[in-house]
TrEMBL record:
UniProt subcellular location: Cytoplasm
Family annotation (SUPFAM superfamilies): Actin-like ATPase domain
UniProt protein name: Glucokinase
Domain of life: Bacteria
Keyword ATP-binding found: yes
Catalytic activities: D-glucose + ATP = D-glucose 6-phosphate + ADP + H(+)
Positions of ATP binding: 16-21
Protein species of origin: Sinorhizobium kostiense
Length: 338
């Protein structure tokens, strides 16, 4: 399979992180320059990515010759719909309308994985114990508009990101309290996927289920109200919601650590992680992460971190664009050139 490290990309180069709600872009003038941030956009404010880019690129003198974009969703075919937004990315249209000569699309958490190959200490907050083993497999996952998951494997001298749709794997109840709450959770097409709980709308799904299990009316109207009330201790149902959210995220993070044998660390990205970091620093997350009998002793040695870099995906894309030979990124079916 062709990998992107076989070839370089022409500069100036546009990098972009396109999620379900927000799209963030930056320009790299050359392989030695720092990314120049462009104004972020809401995907709902523009009908197409071309319209959004024409709006923000009009403010810059340098016009990009190529683009590497990270998208929330699987990359298949010449039309790539986003999982949690209305945009459909059509690279051939981008080549024609934006004057680009080269476009590469990758998964958004693939970009997050690129960012943790060599993260700066100031971009991480460790949660609990454990240590990073160099050149060992890593996992990135994070709750935001959805739940993104990716692996990072070191082989033959390069880092290889492994994209996936781990947010859509089933999740089930384990404790007596779980069994009380589960009947009130809203499933998706009859099944309970991790993303139904571990994302922005998942917080509300969980909060309403907690209230229903206790026979009370939900007083809080949105995710921001729930997390604010939980962190301040102002609402008992919200406090339990965030505690359970941290527990379930710990379980899923532990599952992924076992799947990848992630002795290089597990890294929590996504917009929600930074907002609820005080809750994640409490015992629930790490206790659930380590509770993987018969491998609890192993789990205690694996480090977990919150990624606090404000633009981690763009940092990962920039690292790849500057040094493509350091990474093994598959390009087959994901790269378009004029």
């Amino acid at each position: 399979m062709p990998i992107a490290s076989d070839q370089t990309f022409p500069f100036p180069l546009l990098i972009g992180d396109i999620g379900g709600t927000n799209a963030r872009f930056a320009l790299l003038d050359d392989a030695k320059s720092e990314p120049r941030q462009l104004p972020p956009v809401k995907t709902a404010d523009f009908e197409t990515i071309e319209a959004a880019l024409k709006s923000i690129l009009g403010l810059n003198a340098a016009r990009p010759r190529s683009a590497i974009l990270a998208l929330a969703g699987p990359i298949q075919g010449d039309e790539v719909p986003l999982t949690n937004a209305d945009w459909v990315i059509r690279p051939k249209d981008m080549l024609a309308s934006l004057g680009l000569s080269d476009v590469l699309l990758i998964n958004d958490f693939e970009a997050q994985a690129l960012a943790v190959a060599a993260p700066a200490d100031e971009d991480l907050v460790q949660i609990g114990g454990g240590e990073i083993l160099p050149h060992s497999s890593r996992v990135v996952l994070g709750p935001g508009t959805g739940l993104g998951v990716a692996g990072m494997v070191f082989a033959q001298g390069i880092w290889i990101p492994v994209p996936g749709e781990g947010g859509h794997v089933d999740i089930g109840p384990s404790t007596e309290r779980d069994f009380q709450i589960w009947p009130f959770l809203e499933p998706i097409e009859g099944r309970m996927a991790r993303e139904q709980i571990l994302c922005g709308r998942g917080i509300m799904n969980l909060y309403r289920a907690v209230c229903a299990a206790d026979g009370i009316d939900p007083a809080l109207k949105d995710q921001a109200e729930v997390t604010t009330a939980a962190l301040s201790g102002a609402d008992a149902a919200a406090v339990e919601t965030l505690s359970l959210f941290s527990t379930y995220l710990g379980r899923v993070a532990g599952d992924m650590a076992l799947i990848f044998m992630a002795r290089g660390g597990v890294f929590l990205g996504g917009g929600i992680t930074q907002k609820i970091l005080p809750a994640l620093m409490k015992p629930e997350f790490r206790a659930a992460f380590e509770d993987k009998a018969p491998h609890s002793a192993l789990m205690r040695t694996i480090a977990t971190f919150a990624v606090v870099h404000p633009m981690a995906a763009l940092a990962g894309l920039a690292a790849f664009a500057r040094r493509p030979g350091t990474f093994g990124v598959a390009t087959e079916g994901r790269r378009w050139r004029s």
